[in-house]
Each structure stands twice: as structure tokens, then as C-alpha cells.
Amino acid sequence: MTSAVQIGEQTIGGDAPVYVIGEIGLNHNGDVDIAKKLIDVSADAGAQAVKFQKRTPDISTPEHMKSMPRETPWGTMTYLEYRYRVEFGKDEYTEIAQYAKSKGLDWFASPWDEEAVEFLEEMNVPTHKVASASVTDLGMLRKLKETGKPIILSTGMSTIEQIDTAVEILGTDKLVLLHATSTYPLPPEEANLRTIHTLKDRYGVPVGYSGHEPGLQISLAAVAIGAQAVERHITLDRTMWGSDHSASLEPRGFGALIRDIRIIETAMGDGVKRVFPGELAPLSKLRRVDG
């Protein structure tokens, strides 16, 4: 039996409903108003949380990419300049935090460097999310462990040995794992959903699913086989400029996903075989008893 982890006022694991995270990431394109609209999308759909990404561009941007030219809606700039252009600071995140709270949502982010961890701690986030790209950033994992906060760890691009090392550093008392395959978009043959059971059995912690597939089927299948959290990228429009929009769910799709997750949860039942009230009328009409 896996343990349960408390995130803010919500629980992941045990008998709690699936914890759904709207992954805004950088799909706000550096615009607080777009971020707020995506928070509205998440709240209207019935999600429990929204997630962003937090970088210190000078630290997290690889040296060989800093001076590379990037075509953007704001003109041609270096990749480092672009990273600063779309990065929110304290004022923006303070506004975002207040807005998310007003909508009844947790908000947190994936830090991409140790300075970003310090920033998010100053913002008093309820949890930290480790992106798949950061599973082997052991210094940052140790920094996250020191916060004492619950940690959600995505496992894409990782071997089981690399996950073992990360879990050893983070501990299992406040840990949630998300099975993920970091292929964009995700083809069904690389989803490997049975890994959800592998992770649960190996670590004894709540396990969810972080999906990058175009549709809903794989995420819904993950819930049906036991995922206790689901994270999906969301966007206002998949045709918007930016690297993650095309692999994201639009508002209608995100709403349909959460609707169907709740239906699946209800349909799973408790496993006790019994005659339900709705069966009584057909039983009286159709059942033959061999005397």
C-alpha cells in the first residue's frame, strides 16, 4: 500500500481523488494576463493545481546556447535574451500566486537551478516539482530536500538506477513520482504505462502520470490502472508561438480530461461483488432460477 502525501490542502494517494495539475510551463509566453487566463482554464476544468517553470537564465542556459539567435514574436534575439524575456520575477509571481489562490488552486513550479529553488522558497510554494531534465541534478535535489517540502518528481529520460539515486537523496516520506516519457508528442508505443506499477512497487510512494501525448486516451488509461496524479500541458491555442503549445491541451480538451477522470474514479468502485439497486428490476424480470 502506497503512502499519501499532503500538498497544501490536497492529498495525493490513498483514497484521495486524482490530483490534476495544469502545466502552464512557459505557455504564458512571458505575459501575466495569459498566465491568468490559463489559471482560469484550470479552475474551470476542475484541476487542483497549476505549475510553472522557474529558471535563473544565466545559470540554467547551457553556455553553447546562450548566444544562439532565436526568432521570436519580439524580434530576433539571443537564446539567453529570449529566456529572460519569458521569465517571470517576484512581482509577476506574487500576482500569479494571489490569483491562483483566489481560484482555489495550488501553484508551484519546476526549478531548473539552485537559485530558482531559493526564489520559490521565498514565494512559499506548497511543493516543488522536479522536471525530468533535472533528475540527475543531484546538487539541486539536495537543495530541495533541505526545504522539507513535499517533492513531485517526473521520471522521463531516466533509468531506474538514476531514479534510485534521486529517491535516495529526496527520501520517500514526502515524495510523489510521475511516470513520464519525454517524447514530444508522445507516441502510444513509448507510453509504457505499466511503469506506474513498477514505480509503486519499488518505492512505495504515490505515483502519477505526466503526459505529452496529443489526445486524452493515454492519460485516462493511466488513471484506470492506478495513477494518483495527472499532469498535462495546457494552452489557450495550440497554434500560439512557443515550443510547448503544440503538445498541449486546449481548454475544451483539458475540461474533457478531468470530466472523464472523475467518471473513471467513480466507475472503479471498491471491488466487492454485489447486486446493485439498478439491477433489481432486471433481476426480477430476467433471472431464471433452476429449482
UniProtKB/TrEMBL annotation:
Domain of life (superkingdom): Bacteria
Domain PseI/NeuA/B-like: 38-273
Name of the protein in question: N-acetylneuraminate synthase family protein
Native species: Lysobacter korlensis
Lineage per the UniProt record: Bacteria, Pseudomonadati, Pseudomonadota, Gammaproteobacteria, Lysobacterales
